[in-house]
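Q: What does the assembled structure look like for these inputs?
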Amino acid sequence: MSFNMFVQHLFNAITLGSLYGLVAIGYTMVYGILRLINFAHGDIFMLGAYFMFFGTVTFNLPWGIAAVIAVAASSVCGVFVDRIAFRPLRDAPRISALISAIGVSFLIENLSLVLFTGLPRQVIQPEWMVKIITIGEIRILPLAIVVPVIAFTLVLGLLWIVYRTKPGLAMRAISKDIETTRLMGVSVDKIIALAFGLGSALAAASGIMWALRYPQIHPFMGVFPGFKAFIAAVFGGIGSIQGAMIGGMLLGLIEIMIIAFFPSLSGYRDAFAFILLIVILLMKPTGLMGEKLEDKI
Amino acid sequence: MLKIDSLHVYYGGIHAVKGITIEIPRGKIVTLIGANGAGKSSTIRAIAGLVKHVQGHIAFTGRDGKETELTGKTPETMVKLGIAMSPEGRRILPHLTVEENLRLGAYIRTDEDGIVSDIDMVYSLFPRLRERSWQRGGTLSGGEQQMLAVGRALMSRPDLIMLDEPSLGLAPLLVKEVFDIIRQINSEGKTVLLVEQNAFAALKVADYAYILEVGNVVLEGTGEQLLSDSRVKAAYLGG
Ligand SMILES: Nc1ncnc2c1ncn2[C@@H]1O[C@H](COP(=O)(O)OP(=O)(O)OP(=O)(O)O)[C@@H](O)[C@H]1O
Ligand SMILES: [Mg+2]
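A:
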């Protein structure tokens, strides 16, 4: 493989990795706080893409405005999922919340199937994003630069919230000791809602950018990216935001590079992530950045 | 300031507190003492709103003279009314720094300047914490964690501070230090509800004391009265 080809693959890998990473962060935040896997998270990713589609195609909004509205609307959906599916079960056995999460995921997917139909829709790609530019011998899509830049900006913003603001402090406190945090006067339900809102916003941003990169969208488009982002979160060490982003990046790299070097394996593309999951769970269940957890699902 | 009337606490089938009546006057140190499982923690956890099945009345009278019923309220309400609690076992957030732990204690406040000066106040109360302000809570020694737990409870500027076994697991010298601090906090105008197993030290600082046995108040009186009571001597002061 030529150097130029390699660089192109690298850009693709970083793009895909940032998209996985953004979704992985939502899994990791919810798990970090509630010790719960939010199976509906991949569906928020899908909703983000659909809201973007309606904003740009149905309402003819400019790209940027549609994206902001789509992110906000998906974020509200994420908070709503917590409100109806998880909050009533806060004191219930964890398995109940897990079943509830799976139920909500099916509900969102099938409701979307009814409301949006199963026909794949075509998202409009802004022309400048998909007009290949050449730098020397290297040919890349502007999108492959835009996506990682947006993704990293969002992650930096999130880290700022988590490490530099008061709700962020409460969020970090809750992840270790909910009762003591409540004793300090923190309204725990509000902070959990905030975590769902932030995680969902990032997932929606990822879904939107995914739709710009792979413009066919459908109600089940969140399922596989959701699984893989979850694996990325486990890989990076579930509970760690930085870990989720690193896990996403590495998963993107592994997926793209294996196919690049061994094109004959491209049919097994979706299997790499699952093989990786099995390997991590066998070798280092706490992931790259993860702390030791007393109990896991 | 706080009146507890026929308080019952249940955990499933367990009847942990069986109708106790307690009064905490403003400006005083009141202590609850009793053996393991007597229901001391359950009582203050009920005040804080941390236990679900509570019967009876907990009436808190604020500085403005307004009375609030605390049963069925959340810990958030308690803190906003001016009550803070340092829970049993300290419960320092191990991954947060000393300073972040203190800031968490000030969560309901928005006066940044006041928070900064109160952090400084806590550091002058416990100079060892100042040296460790950037250290993670989990790396502190047991005694330092206890100081941090008391300091954290002070950060909401409470009128009433509830301490659950602040001397637990501390060396004798530190125990003395903790009780000195309790006296000092009280002399600065805060009302203190102290839960203790160290009956001698608690009775010495307390204005008034209640002795709990399996969920009932079996004896009450001023600290001095109970210190010289023969039953108390036999059961709690080692003869
Ligand atoms: N969460 C709980 N679930 C069930 N029973 C409980 C719970 N918490 C306390 N109990 C029971 O209630 C009774 C009173 O407990 P509590 O913690 O109030 O005692 P305590 O006086 O604080 O004791 P210690 O000095 O050991 O802290 C005990 O019998 C205890 O086993
Ligand atoms: Mg106790």
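The pocket of adenosine-5'-triphosphate (ligand 1) is lined by residues B 11, 14, 16, 34, 36-42, 88, 197 (CB under 6 Å).
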